[in-house]
Amino acid sequence: MPSGIGASYRSLADDVYKSTTVAENKFSVIESVKKAFSFSSGGAARRSDPLLTRTDAQQATPEGGAANSTMPSDSMDDIELRNIQLQFPQARTMSREDSQLHEERVETGRGSVVVAVQGNRSRPAILTYHDLGLNYVSGYQTFFNYIDMRALLENFCVYHVTAPGQEEGAPTLPEDFVYPTMDELSDQLSFVLSHFGLRSVIGFGVGAGANVLARYALAHPGKIEALCIINCVSTQAGWIEWGYQKLNTRHLRSKGMTQGVLDYLMWHHFGRGTEERNHDLVQVYRNYFERHVNPTNLALFIDSYIRRTDLNIVREMDPGRKNNTHTLSMPVINITGALSPHVDDTVTLNGRLDPTNSTWMKIQDCGMVLEEQPAKVSEAFRLFLQGQGYGKWLAANC
After folding, report:
1. Neighbours of 164 (CB within 10 A)
2. Nearest to 60 by CA among 35, 87, 42
3. CA 28 → CA 48, 51, 174, 285, distances in Å?
């Protein structure tokens, strides 16, 4: 130490060391241990600790004065925890018994379809259509029961349309049954609107269902006020898709739900790397596809989907020729997941739509957006409806 300072310097570490190790100190080892425990519990030993200065004691009190004679820990009684019960979250199910919706079978020109109604029928109508391997329960039940959507749907009525033979517990369609084409499936929606007395609806479709709604919107633009489509494909099937799906339909008809078909369905809905992202959700859908899907009926739906024709949508930038252009004239929000295998298809569709009335949205970290990112989709859908003039219906929920 410097000579000018060494005479007045006192090592605090030496005092602490001697007080706990040197036998000649006035504190024994046992007393030192007792003092350490009383220091940690805030007892009287802390107040007699020579290391605690007067300034520290003043800071320990609310008024900055002397420390109280009794710390809160001194007067605390022992607490005994009783009646502790473990609560486990309810298992995720996909059953229409849990949906509590009213189902009606609507007769159309190409067979009948099941329509489930959710909400007050006097409210503005939202019409949904599901994707391959799903129906209104497995495709939309979780999303429309999401807390933000339940608040929104207090002012809307949803009509869930299920493709022929795709409802839960559906009997196998007859061998001579000719499944409707994609254009004929879209024509069935006219019978649905007429059955419920709907003049126009807001379309909400995923995958194959989005393609059906897009076809209906092109044929009946006055019936669709706005369109929300997810993973929509606007082109005809390519050779790779056609080959895979042809193999799938053959297996579904002859062997049922094979592992190859199951893997393809999981890829179709979730993309790759799903096991690492959400293992529990994957198991739920695997179990659903294996046990609750009629393989023969699904094969017919898939075969109709791969035989789809191009939507022939054209983007026309000349204002004078837009009225004669074959395109979606209503507002459109085109959504996909960043991990979905259909990202490129949605980009292609976005390039064919009118940029003045369409929006493309890619949601990160998901493939099946309704299941993996319901909060983001519900927020986007709510803002989309506000932009279409439904603010008064949403004001109570914003």
Report:
1. 23
2. 42
3. 16, 17, 95, 68
Q: Which residue has the tokens 């046992």?
A: 30
Q: Where are the alpha helices (DSSP H) in 181-278?
A: 182-196, 208-219, 239-254, 259-270, 274-277
pTM, full prediction: 0.75
- List the beta strands (DSSP E) in the chain: 102-108, 111-118, 125-129, 157-162, 201-206, 224-230, 332-337, 358-363
Residue 23 region by backbone torsions, left for phi larger than 0, else alpha for psi between -120 and 50, else beta: alpha
pLDDT tens, position by position, for the chain (398 residues)? 444 444 444 444 444 444 444 444 444 555 655 555 554 555 444 444 444 444 444 444 444 444 444 555 555 566 665 666 655 444 455 555 555 688 999 999 988 999 999 988 999 999 999 999 999 999 999 999 998 888 788 889 999 999 999 998 899 999 899 999 999 999 999 999 999 999 999 999 999 999 999 999 999 999 999 999 999 999 999 999 999 999 999 999 999 999 999 999 999 999 987 777 778 888 999 999 999 999 999 999 999 999 999 999 988 777 777 676 788 999 999 999 999 999 999 999 999 999 999 999 999 989 999 999 999 999 999 999 988 887 665 655 54
DSSP 8-state symbol, 102 = E
Q: Strand, coil or helix: what is 230?
A: strand
Q: Which amino acid is at 125?
A: A
**Between vectors from CA 190 to CA 184 and to CA 192, what angle results, nearest 5°?**
105
Phi, psi (rounded to 5 degrees) for 297 = -65, -40
In 3-state terms, what secondary structure has residue 51? Answer: coil
First-to-last alpha carbon distance for the chain, in angstroms, is 70
Q: Are 140 and 162 in contact (CB under 8 A)?
A: no
Q: Encoding tokens for residue 143?
A: 């999303």
Whole-angstrom distance, CA of residue 233 vs CA of residue 207? 7
Indicate the angle between helix axes 239-254 and 295-306, nearest 10 degrees: 160
Angle ∠(358,359,361) on CA atoms, nearest 5: 155
Q: Is 315 left (phi over 0), alpha (psi -120 to 50) or beta?
A: beta
User: What's the CA gap between 127 and 225, in Å, rounded?
Assistant: 11
The residue count of the chain comes to 398
Q: Alpha-carbon torsion 388, 389, 391, 394, what sign?
A: negative
